[in-house]
Amino acid sequence: MHFMILTAVNVPQIEEDEKENAEVRKHFENEEKKGREYVKSGRWSEEWGEIKIGMLWKRYYCLNTTFSRAVFEQLEKVMKPYVYDFTPGAVNDHSSACDYFTVGGRFWGVFPVRESCKEVVLGERSSLAGTAYGLVDRGTSVSVFPPANMEESEEDADMPEGYVRVSAARKKDIDWELLRELANWGEERYPILTQAYAFIDNGVLQVPGKDEPDEEWAERVNAYMDSLPDDALIAIIDGGEN
Q1: Distance between CA 143 and CA 140 in Å, rounded?
Q2: 140 contacts 122 by C-beta, under 8 angstroms
Q3: Does the model's pTM come out above 0.90?
Q4: For the chain, domain boundaries
């Protein structure tokens, strides 16, 4: 089973580490090389190859891996009480909602942001996931924050010029109007998010009551989102249970 968990953390502005950035760039250069080889072998047309490579680098330029690591360190603290500890002798209780978690995963790329926005987390896209806005249940993977790769890059194909998909961003940087348009969710304040299995508010996991109507749960999610400051870093968590 897999759970969509919504949470927020407070992360200050963080300067990009040039050495780390150079290592990440090397990965993207290798991915571009792979794309060129796909074109050369005939797997992709030259036109499609250029589109894919352009989308790949679009990801790179909005990526600050130093910031992403700081976000994940905060998320680890938030999620720790709710992730099963497999250490021999560890004591787990009913609050251990999942065996592992990843940022994005099956719900990768929910948030549209300007590609110039650097305070984001791309997250891990499930290798079998469909379009994020379809909320397709197809499993997930467990690693966190790998750079975007050539196989993922077409996921931005429906993004307007100047936008990119991410799995975590500051509330103020998410284009909520564009999200409503892309998801076709009418006038809901926070489209997609009201479908979350749970949200974590001040360290407490909140889940729907046994007989709680969907409308009441949606209002609880909306109230939680309304309570968050504009600088809050909103993250979509995919929690997995083996």
Answers
A1: 10
A2: no
A3: no
A4: 2-240
CB atoms near residue 172 (< 10 Å):
12
Angle, in degrees to the nearest 10, between helices 18-41 and 65-79:
100
Instruction: Pull the structure tokens for residue 130.
Output: 């469909």
Alpha helices in 119-239, H assignment, sequence order: 176-183, 214-227
Q: Are the C-beta atoms of residues 172 and 137 closer than 8 Å to each other?
A: no
Identify the pLDDT of residue 12: 86
118/60 Cα distance (integer angstroms): 10
Yes or no: say if 155 and 109 are a contact pair by the CB < 8 Å rule.
yes
Q: How many CB atoms lie within 10 A of CB 140?
A: 23
E-assigned strand segments in the chain: 2-9, 100-105, 111-114, 120-121, 124-125, 163-166, 168-170, 198-201, 204-206, 233-240
Closest CA to 164 of 98, 108, 87, 101: 108
Nearest to 107 by CA among 121, 83, 123, 84: 123
pLDDT at 85: 67
C-beta separation of 187 from 86 below 8 A? no
Retrieve residue 172's tokens. Answer: 């103020």
Binned average pLDDT, 10 residues per bin, the chain of 242 residues:
79 82 83 91 89 78 77 86 70 63 82 90 63 34 44 64 89 94 83 88 89 92 96 88 58
Residue 41, both tokens: 């072998």
Helices 46-61/18-41 angle, 10° precision: 170
| 121 φ/ψ angles, rounded to the nearest 5 degrees | -125, 120
Closest CA to 188 of 163, 228, 218: 218
